[in-house]
Amino acid sequence: MTATPAPTALDTEFAPLDIGPIQVWPPVVLAPMAGITNAPFRTLCREQSGGKGLYVSEMITTRALVERNAKTMQLIKFDPSEKPRSIQLYGVDPATVGKAARMISDEGLADHIDLNFGCPVPKVTRKGGGSALPYKRNLLREILREAVANAGDLPVTMKMRKGIDDDHLTYLDAGRIGAEEGVAAIALHGRTAAQHYGGTADWSAIARLREAVPAHVPVLGNGDIWSADDALRMMRETGCDGVVVGRGCLGRPWLFKDLVAIFEGDVDYARPDFGYVARAMVRHAQLLGEWIGDETRGVIDFRKHVAWYTKGFSVGSELRVKLANSSSLDELAETLAQVEQSQSWPVGADGPRGRTSGNGRVVLPEGWLDDPYDCARPGEDAESDTSGG
């Protein structure tokens, strides 16, 4: 299955990303983000890229999927234009993960399964999930084995962090285990769980993982890709096979247009004026309303994106407040029309967005760090019966 056309330039330096039978060009993946990478946002990013790249759903809890939770079943609905369809699963119980993978395969719910071992939020790590789980090497192996064995012909990939903290790094062991268990690709966010989203991503860890994992298993880098130039620099510095873009595209869906351009030898990056940004904002809110089935709820859900879209532009505090409290498409569009539409792209607007702080401490189950090979099982309450943020 080919996700995107073959490269037309720079193909002597960079190759398409092969994830099982899926070929991705440019080698760019949208990172799963809870409450963000739903079908409307994926559609917006894909439109900007001309359909190139790979776009992953927000995190889906395996228990909720197996139990066919209504919210979860809504979250895994893909737009008919989405090919390939990519689902990220979060699970802590090997058997449940296996059931979820088999369900996706048997029912044709997606074309690719990604497994989340990188989430650093306390409500996940305190139960032994997300970025806490790879510390338990044998449990990680069992989960990967069940997922791969039950996914049929679907490729299974994994996304992780460096480890719990600098004293408990897990990424090299986890990468080797993933390769041994047959994952189709491994993505590494160059931060520990303790860093959360603070500090600077350690790209050298991505390079070390690339050296440690067999060459036939693609390694993807994640962390601090705020512009297309950052993506190119990461690949050149680390030797990774592709990049995963998360917070860098918040309020900047056209970053994927830039990524296509730079990998195909074009430096004509998107530097939209405010009028272009305003139209993208309205379209995003409209897509959310259509997806949810209620315009007001769609606009309300869109509110969290307002600050990201308008960062750097001269909007004014009063209009920002009105935008953040809009409850209809007309109200949103009318408020946006009051902002000077011809404003040029702000200098420095490509910097960090989203969460930027670290928590310095990871909440873990009692005794979690006592034995990295103890195949402890997180409790039944470690997985929510619903999905999303």
Automatic annotation (TrEMBL):
Keywords (A to Z) from UniProt: Flavoprotein, FMN, NADP, Nucleotide-binding, Oxidoreductase, RNA-binding, tRNA processing, tRNA-binding
Pfam families: Dus
Region (Disordered): 341-389
UniProt-annotated binding residues for FMN: P32, M33, A34, Q88, K159, H189, G246, R247
Origin: domain of life: Bacteria
Entry's family note: Belongs to the dus family.
UniProt name for this protein: tRNA-dihydrouridine synthase
Protein source organism: Streptomyces rubellomurinus (strain ATCC 31215)
